[in-house]
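Q: what does this look like with iron/sulfur cluster bound?
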Amino acid sequence: MDYLSSNKILIVDLNTGETSEDALDDDLVSQKIGGVGITSSLYETYKDRDPVILGTGLLTGTLFPASALSVISAKSPRTGYLTHSPFTLKAGMELKYTGFDYVVILGRSENPVFLWLHDGVADILDAAELWGKDVWNTTDLLRKSMGDDLIQTLVIGPAGEEGSDLAQVCVNYWANGDCWGFGKVLGEKNLKAVALRGMGLLEISDAEDFVDQCFEIFEAIKGSALEGKRGVEDILIALGESDAREWLAPVVHRHSACYNTPYPTNTFIYLNEDPTTLTEPAEPEPGFMITDIGALLALKKSGLSAADAGHVLRACARRGVDPAAVAEIIGKTGQKDPKAIEQSLEGLQGTVAVPQGAKFSSWVPQNPIFGDFGLSGESSLRDWWVRRQAVAYLFGIHPIFANMSPELSEEVILEMVNKGTGLDLSQETLDQVIEDICS
Amino acid sequence: MRIDVDALKCIGCMACEMACGYHRDDAFALLASCIVVYRAREKKDYFGVVVKEEESLTIARPEGVEIKRIGVAEEAGDSGQKKEADASAKPMLLREPCDLCSDMKYGPMCVKICPVNAISLQDEGE
Ligand code: SF4
Ligand code: SF4
């Protein structure tokens, strides 16, 4: 692949400590498109070796609006079959610029290691000093040891090391889309983290047309239903929590967006610093960035204050445990004391219901947000959500933003991918790939 | 004219940085952008935007904009641009200065793409 691609699939063998590379074949892209289309295909190829596959979409890291997503695909300990987790913030984009479109991680290392992907180079490095550390300390140590604060990390905490089904792969310091227990999968591989940093460059087939149209789509989005809305509070309001703004107001600091995403889906709250502070706070860890809307909503419904919910979410992220699962389990106990909840995280067990056959992360709300997608009826809503997520995971589009923006239609996405790559992907191919990955 | 950024409006999306990178390289890349989101203090949620100009650096922080003449910024030790140098792999001072996208039909691309209108064109001296 010459365009919108680094043209490389990295194969990492943790048993031998060796890496190798394959080219990303145009034919594979023409048949499977990218993102979860290709990670699913690679999973089939390597499934005897317990693969974890990282993958980018063709639009990931471009100027196409909301091109923030990469994916992790693996067999989930919660479902026993192949599932996919999105990761966004700046990490999805960073993977694309490391010089690898896909990373296939096979086998198990004898000792704890981390994978360092940078500028087309892949190193498997000793993680003895990282093992046992929580998510925040691990990211701090990785950034410090390599002298670069912009390294993005996919990282597990104690929950993953201890083999909890609730363990999550976090991004830097924060929760992200892993509701599948992939933290446990990495822990079993003795893989503490994947560190990402890249200075790559993506060529574009029809650059001028591609960029022209990006601007047009941005303009359409600016004038759309999400204009003037901000952060998790407006998402919660759209989901029916009319008092969300008042509830969060005492702790909200700022809202921020994932890479090139025109809506800030993340809200930072200050827990031990005045949230109105504009200057750089002296406190090194003043709060927490809320990235998991479902977990926040569940804690709100359990009767916690926004500050108490923030403390619980921060504790989950440090430990590397899925906050939505914690919120669901805790909700059943009626516990409201954040200290007691934090203490219960150690060794927390429990099961969380997964919709039958689900492949895509429930981290993304199940409804349209702001945008009018012209839907009606219960079954059509579920089908719409699955298809919308499939498209986001195939092309590299932020999966929450995909549910906000009808402007990013399948037709528009296909047209842009064809402009950017010079390929001729059709709606029939897209339909077939979606059918394959959902079956 | 020069680029002005309201860092309080900014949501840190990096669209401006990638648009500027495209202007420099005719491809998607971040290494040559002269507008950069500084985001190295992630745990503190302290972020803003730096613009490299011919003779100065505009550092748009949440608490306000500071314009540093480049010679002064270099001599300023740990303040000014040195403080923001961790924002990117290639130091800002080594990058081409903002030319307001003079050869692009779109006009200043960062202004056009910012989803929250945090970037504007200002008369010099404003
Ligand atoms: S006006 Fe153009 S050159 Fe100047 S910072 Fe914006 S994108 Fe870069
Ligand atoms: S495009 Fe606008 S909101 Fe995004 S980082 Fe640049 S200034 Fe901030």
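Chain B has one domain: 2-70+88-121. Residues 2-70+88-121 of chain B form one domain.
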